[in-house]
Amino acid sequence: MNTFLSSVAVLLSVIALGGTGFVLNQMFQLQQSVRELNASVENPPVASEPPQSPQTPDSSTVPMTESSQQANTEIQPGQFVQYAFKNRAQVELLSVRRIQNPDNGQRNVVNVQMRVRNLGGGNGTIVPNQTIARNPETSERYESYDRVTDRAAREQARRDGTEIDRSDRIDRATTYISMGLLKEGSSADGYVWLLIPEEVQTIDLIIPETAIFPTVPISD
Question: Has this prediction a pTM greater than 0.70?
Fold first, then answer.
């Protein structure tokens, strides 16, 4: 009987030890899980940034192309209109464009095209060849192609003691525009070549008997 009881006591002790070990193992795993959870809370994973898509350039910062710059310097209809002979006529600039110099190939010639309209009230004559351009920054003045070349030809003839040969001369300006030849309300077009350095991009135009045209852009 004592042996049986001893066996039962030993068995119960073994069961108790096994249960204690199991409980201790569960508690150890639970503590390990708690530590890992705390670590993940204190040091959250860094989210990776999504790849950036190519940026589309802002249209306001895109540099203007040559064509758009040229379009901005083109004179628009009605943009430059001034009275002439007080209020008896109007002069409108049709274009102010840089062209190539036929003598030396440089681009130091500006072709100014204008339209003169008779508003009525008397006679008067505009001579495009007398038009003068003025640099708005330096106040330097530039004359017409014909006036400059004619003056140079006269000076050369004076030095050589010869006469000026005008047999092959080509006028680079309309001779004149007379109000007396225009009916009231009608108009006539004229032009003049001006010798203006290539680096000059804006001019004041002074046409005889006409109010000044300020800051006129030169297009290419």
Answer: no
